[in-house]
Specification:
By secondary structure, the protein is of the alpha+beta class. It has a domain of about 90 residues: Glutaredoxin (3-Layer(aba) Sandwich), CATH 3.40.30. Helix content is about 50%, strand content about 10%. A four-stranded mixed β-sheet has the order 2-1-3-4, with helices on both faces. The longest helix has 24 residues. The termini are far apart.
């Protein structure tokens, strides 16, 4: 009886080992961020981000214009995504921070700070 249990245990361990080996050997798939519109990167507690958010809410920008919002202070994936996009930005020595609006179809692709982002939304929605 002990011999059967030993054989079963060895077979189970081999199956598990093969499964783990297969899972680890799979090719890694790179995930590319695909967005249908601009992305507004913001940080929780950021005063400039609050200014932009108040403008968006008061003028119902989200109802008039499609864009995504991604918080970066508490979300490492969003922060890394923002840094990836920011590499394409021409900050002219101005540094990087939030709020940052990334719009691949716009020139410049990145807008940093409350005033440029609010002006962008005004132009896109005819908001005052």
């Amino acid at each position: 009886m002990k011999k059967n249990q030993l054989i079963i245990t060895v077979v189970v361990l081999l199956v598990v080992a093969l499964g783990v080996s297969y899972w680890l050997s799979r090719p890694q798939v790179e995930v590319k961020v695909v967005s249908e519109g601009p992305i507004l990167y913001w940080g929780s507690g950021c005063p400039h981000c609050i200014t932009v958010e108040e403008f968006i809410n008061q003028n119902k920008i989200a109802d008039k214009f499609k864009f995504e919002r991604k918080e970066v202070f508490n979300n490492q994936a969003n922060a890394q995504e923002m840094l990836t996009h920011a590499a394409d930005c021409d900050t002219q020595g101005g540094g990087m921070g939030v709020p940052l609006l990334w719009d691949e179809k716009n020139s410049p692709k990145c807008l940093i700070g409350a005033e440029p982002i609010i002006n962008y939304f005004k132009a896109k929605t005819n908001a005052q």
